[in-house]
């Protein structure tokens, strides 16, 4: 390893030493060697009761570069008076449509006066979507979401102007930011365990000296050769993923199964898997830089669209504080709590589905 690469690796290890839970799904870092991140050539087979009705790829164009975006649809048995839901995974090293499958299936199978069709979409650079070496940041992810919702050939193009967005973590906050700018016009927004601060900035701050170090780490992770080496040391190993899931991603360590860890580990091995995590870890995917800005995003939706906040009972302290700041905040229509930590939709899908279903019924009924 060249001397410069060795220094960068040493700097990364120093960055990751605090045993602090932070406001992101994969990242309170407990040991210098561990972080979390990865992917496979095609999605693993779903459990029969959670299998999507349809899967496909949508081509997103960014800077004249086509990027194949993976999506799956969950259709109701009765296709009358059906409303549409877009579900977007929590942004993290191991982000995947799989986290929403059981929630989608539970909501879709409820055949009441209003029915629902759920479309789950992987972010570019994550899950089962292509992972090109783009300069990922919050603006890029916002641009993707805007094009997804507004493009005439996207998987959610035929929503008849009524599309609810459901997102977790940073994904929810990016959606709220886009809606506040008027770039998208969702019928309703549900933010599940919403976050805004990446792992390193929330622990070490955003001073100019730290931003310089973040840039060095980010550049090293993106570099050929040394980038994969560092990524494998910091992120791509099953023990690290299991440790993080048990410590703060899930509330109950007994719910972390070998199948989940294996699936998430496979996500960290896809070609280009390190590019989005390099941005996420160092704060480039943060949609805002303070709690005040976080609250202002939601305030901008006051009177425009109903907003549900789904907080969790066992979120890490820092993440929990940001969620609690939204209780009673301007622009927030409803605030509820469910079991879980940073990924309740995967750990307690039925509890999350129940709250989402009630909110959707209330929101769409009010529009009739």
Automatic annotation (TrEMBL):
Keywords linked to the UniProt accession: Signal
Domain AB hydrolase-1 residue range list: 112-354
A GO-annotated cellular component: chloroplast
TM regions (residue ranges): none
Residues making up the signal peptide according to the UniProt record: 1-21
Highest taxon of the lineage: Eukaryota
Annotated PANTHER family: ALPHA/BETA-HYDROLASES SUPERFAMILY PROTEIN, ALPHA_BETA-HYDROLASES SUPERFAMILY PROTEIN
Protein name per UniProt: AB hydrolase-1 domain-containing protein
Organism in which the protein naturally occurs: Eleusine coracana subsp. coracana
Record gene name: ga15854
């Amino acid at each position: 390893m060249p001397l410069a690469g060795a220094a960068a690796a040493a700097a990364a290890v120093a960055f990751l030493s605090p045993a602090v839970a932070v406001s992101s799904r994969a990242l309170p870092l407990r040991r210098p060697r561990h972080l979390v991140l990865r992917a496979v050539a095609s999605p693993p087979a779903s459990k029969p009761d959670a299998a999507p009705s349809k899967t496909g790829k949508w081509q997103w164009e960014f800077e004249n570069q086509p990027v194949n975006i993976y999506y799956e649809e969950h259709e109701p048995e009765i296709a009358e008076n059906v409303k549409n839901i877009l579900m977007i995974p929590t942004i993290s090293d191991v982000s995947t449509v799989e986290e929403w499958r059981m929630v989608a299936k539970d909501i879709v199978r409820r055949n009441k006066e209003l029915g629902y069709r759920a479309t789950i979409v992987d972010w570019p650079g994550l899950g089962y979507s292509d992972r090109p070496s783009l300069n990922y940041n919050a603006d890029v992810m916002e641009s993707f979401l805007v094009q997804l919702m507004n493009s005439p050939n996207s998987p959610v193009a035929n929503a008849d102007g009524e599309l609810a967005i459901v997102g977790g973590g940073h994904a929810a906050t990016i959606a709220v930011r886009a809606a506040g700018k008027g770039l998208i016009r969702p019928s309703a927004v549900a933010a599940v365990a919403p976050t805004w601060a990446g792992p390193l900035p929330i622990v070490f701050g955003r001073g100019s000296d730290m931003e310089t170090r973040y840039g060095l780490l980010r550049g090293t992770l993106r570099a050929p050769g040394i980038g994969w080496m560092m990524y494998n040391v910091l992120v791509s190993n099953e023990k690290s993923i299991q440790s993080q899931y048990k410590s703060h991603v899930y509330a109950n360590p007994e719910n972390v199964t070998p199948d989940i860890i294996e699936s998430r580990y496979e996500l960290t091995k896809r070609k280009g898997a390190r590019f989005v995590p390099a941005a996420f870890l160092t704060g480039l995917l943060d949609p805002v830089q303070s709690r005040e800005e976080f609250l202002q995003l939601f305030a901008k939706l006051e009177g425009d669209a109903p907003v549900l906040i789904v907080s969790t009972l066992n979120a890490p302290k820092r993440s929990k504080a940001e969620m609690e700041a939204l209780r009673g905040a301007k622009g927030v229509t409803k605030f509820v709590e469910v079991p879980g930590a940073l990924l309740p939709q995967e750990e307690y899908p039925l509890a999350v589905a129940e709250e989402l279903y009630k909110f959707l019924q209330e929101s769409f009924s009010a529009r009739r």
